[in-house]
Amino acid sequence: MHFRYSIIAASLFSINLFVQAAERLPTITPDSYNSDQKQAAADFEASRKVPVFGPFEPLMHSPQMMSQARAMGDYLRYKSAIGNTLSELAILITAREWTQDYEWYVHHPIALKAGVRKEVTDAIADGRRPVGMSEDEEMVYDFCTELQHNKRVSDTTFNRVEKRFGKKGAVDLTGIVAYYTLLAMQLNVAQYQLPADGKKLERFPK
After folding, report:
1. Is 1.20.1290.10 the CATH number for 76-190?
2. Domain ranges in the chain?
3. What is the pLDDT of residues 151-179, one digit of tens each?
């Protein structure tokens, strides 16, 4: 009998942990916004032409930070010196490094549409180095993975990026990795849920 009650108690504890996790940073409905959140949401929609969504929903608990993050993303995602296709490749690499399901869910179809081949994205999802990458893709892949794994970038890799995209490109590429790491961290901390049609990335190590 004691064993049975222990199992029930453990189950209830697990359910309670799940509920708490799911409500860590719940989405704030627009009718509940305070004045700072209303302004942040208005600025977001003016810039992105859509209401607050995705990683910016948990960030709305700190609307000033959300606005600063959105402004940085406006540049890094759409106007960086390395171009949108390579930006999307860098975003997928970062999402995979942080096993960030929502980030991958949003950017995987965008990357494919931007010209990143499915064979490349499949390899990244599997944790493998893609084969058959272009020279640009190789240098971006090396830069991003070295920065994530080693916390620095080798001279060889940096020089390749600098020669191709200039110092501005090297700074922007670093910024993309940093920015999408920030969003991945926020989403992971919030335990932000995937839409019903989303598929989770495989968890490593296997």
Report:
1. yes
2. 76-190
3. 999 999 999 999 999 999 999 999 999 99
